[in-house]
Amino acid sequence: MILKNKLTGESLEITYPEFRKKFAKEIRIAFESYRRIQLNKYSYNFKDDNSMEYNFYFQLQWNFNHFGNSNWYIEKM
């Protein structure tokens, strides 16, 4: 996957496991933001956190880029 820094324009090419390890804090923040918004909209639609987490990772690129609070964004997966 290719990540790009919004401030410096620096690109970083890493594997998915490296991304999960290096950006664990940013992923957690993005997921919590996603979770909060989804519960406000569709709380009846999710039976447990597993289905919500599955939906988050299913569209990881969009969710990380829009719900995360990071200087990095996923340019390509």
Spatial strand order of the main sheet: 2-1-3
Proportion in helices: 55-70%
Relative strand content: 15-25%
Measured distance between first and last alpha carbons: 4 Å
The biggest sheet, with number of strands, parallel, antiparallel or mixed sense and barrel status, is: 3 strands, antiparallel
Assembly annotation? single chain
Category from helices, strands and their pairing: alpha+beta
Whole-number mean pLDDT: 89
The helix/strand order is: EEHHHHE
Rg calculated over all Cα atoms? 13 Å
Number of contiguous helices: 4
**Overall 3D shape:** elongated
Low-confidence stretches: none
Question: Could you give the count of β-strands?
Answer: 3
Walk me through the structure.
By secondary structure, the chain is an alpha+beta fold. The chain has helices spanning 16-22, 24-42, 49-58, 60-67; strands at 2-5, 11-13, 72-76. A hairpin with a 5-residue loop joins strand 1 and strand 2 (11-13).
Tell me the layout of helices and strands.
Blueprint: E1 2-5, E2 11-13, H1 16-22, H2 24-42, H3 49-58, H4 60-67, E3 72-76
Helix pairs in contact: 2-4
Label this structure with key terms.
77 residues, alpha+beta, 3-stranded antiparallel beta sheet, 4 helices, 3 strands, 16% strand, elongated
In short:
By secondary structure, this protein is of the alpha+beta class. It has helices at 16-22, 24-42, 49-58, 60-67; strands spanning 2-5, 11-13, 72-76. Strand 1 and strand 2 (11-13) form a beta hairpin.
